[in-house]
Amino acid sequence: MSLFVLAETPAGYGLFKAADKKMFKNQDLAAELGRPEKLVEMLKLKKFVKFDSAAMALEEAASLKEGKVPELLTTLLEDLKSEKKASIAVADMKLGAAISNLPQFNLSPVSGNETMDVFRGIREHLSSLIPGLEQEIVDRMSLGLSHSMSRHKLKFSADKVDSMIIQAIKLIDDMDKELNVYAMRTKEWYGWHFPEMAKILNDNLAYARVILTVGMRTNIADSDLSEILPEEVEVAIKAAAEISMGTEMMDEDLENIKLLAEQVIRYSEYRAQLSSYLETRMRAISPNLTALVGYLVGARLIAHAGSLMNLAKAPGSTIQILGAEKALFRALKTKHDTPKYGLIYHSSLIGQATGRNKGKIARMLAAKAALGLRVDALGGDDEEQDEEERAILGLSNRIKLENHLRKLEGKPPLPKGANVAPSGEIVGAGAFTLKETRRYNTDADGVTEETNGDASSKKDKKSKDKKKPKIEVVEEDSDDEMKDGEDDESDDDAATPANKVAKLSSEEYERLAKSAGLSVKKFKRKYERGDVQVSADGTPKVFSKKELKKQRKAEAVQSTPSKPPAEPTSEKKKKRKHDDDEEQVESAKKDKKQKKKKRHSDAE
């Protein structure tokens, strides 16, 4: 029974045959393996299979790590098929179990503490065991393979470097502090010369640009500041410069102030550039977290946790109070209420909520952020997907949280199809508006309007009859009033003439409308209604409403016959007497009541 040793090197697989079958039972084996001459005598190289590339070495090493037998190793072990009974020493117990399960080989693996000394000696004297393999090359190969294995285990991506985010957000925070100090020093220094400008102009960047453009305050009146300031601010600064109470300064002082103003401008421009860089990195590394809390808050959370993976491992309750650890432990020590939010408080969702709803939204937002972080950190990297597809979980959760917040605040929910813009703003779907249709114009009907007018007049008369009182006082001159009422009704009813109007062609309509000074549409409507008369020579005459009423009244007077003699007024007098009797009865009752009241008062 022969003994073989399988050596896994970064350059390839080496298969050695042991000279002594009972080599592992030797107690002085560790001392003997320290000498390379003795190791070469004990182990003889049977076959060496090298890796073709670094990618192949990574695949083989990953398979060995998982306890699988790769293809290249299988081809190497085929040389041992001729051996009836053989044992093979391997460094990993999982690999030994996988080799023993191969049906085509009759091999018994050996692994454990007994083989550790042998493999330690092989690694130390590998260059002497395998001819042509130098130690420097082996060290370089082992370093490259270890880096490749680390990337493979962590699913490394060149885009997902959260250390860049941590450094960027820390630099932004430091630059904000420095910018505030520099800007305040600039205002204080230049304020000795022109103190009024600091009250008018609050923007630090614009303040520094004005200093570089103007210099002394005496030059402000002649300088053009339209590219830096709005018109009203420019006018106010020029007016204040004329009556300024500041002290005079030398040119040397102004040069130093200008140098400080240049630093403020450079810092501000670099800060804006760094902010855009941080936003793009956050959208590439953690798109779901960015959609939920914004890139600044998300970057601060990652920096506080140390890495994206550490933040993804944290539960939602930890993310909620991340940044408020001092307040948490102080509350636990003093047995007070624990804080509801930490760094996550600065997100836009919590800022929209009122006081009593901030804690609820912070808890829900932290839970959704924990889910999004796990997708960002452990999800697959698909290069074909764009930013919106990779951030679909964060966008959908953001809309859900917006609707829940609106429900808590008593506001209507977001419309269907709403989305979150890259800046974090909610973009509503396009509203569907229905335009109001025009109503039917009855004045355009010249033929059917007469019958419709009669029907409507009958309805009006019925409604007027219903509203009449049961007992009427009829006077002698009521006949004249009846005439006026009939004339008014006839004016309302006679909206169109009874006679039919001759039809005209479109060319005639245009000619007559032009001569009448009206539009074709308006002239056509008036002509069909009968408001226009065409003379024999072809000139149209348009009548106004007053003229039409006078004509219709004159026609009505001519058509009505002479009135019959007036009827006796006995019935009218009866009605008047009846009304007078009722009034007398009511007055008598009132007198009796007054007398009774007087008697009671006298008796008292």
How would you describe this protein?
There is one protein chain. The chain has 604 residues and is an alpha/beta fold. Helix content is 59%, strand content 7%. It contains 28 helices and nine strands. The strands form three sheets. The chain has a five-stranded mixed β-sheet. Helix 9 crosses helix 15. It is elongated, with a radius of gyration of 51 Å. Mean pLDDT is 78; it is low at 431-435, 447-499 and 562-573.
Low-confidence spans: 431-435, 447-499, 562-573
Broad structural category: alpha/beta
Number of beta-strand segments: 9
Share of helix, binned: 55-70%
Mean pLDDT: 78
**Biggest sheet details:** 5 strands, mixed
If helices are DSSP runs of H or I spanning 4 or more residues, what is the number of helices? 28
Strand content: 5-15%
Could you tell me how far the N terminus lies from the C terminus, measured between alpha carbons in angstroms?
Answer: 146 Å
Biggest β-sheet: strands ordered side by side in the sheet: 3-2-1-4-5
- Radius of gyration computed on alpha carbons: 51 Å
Which outline best applies? elongated
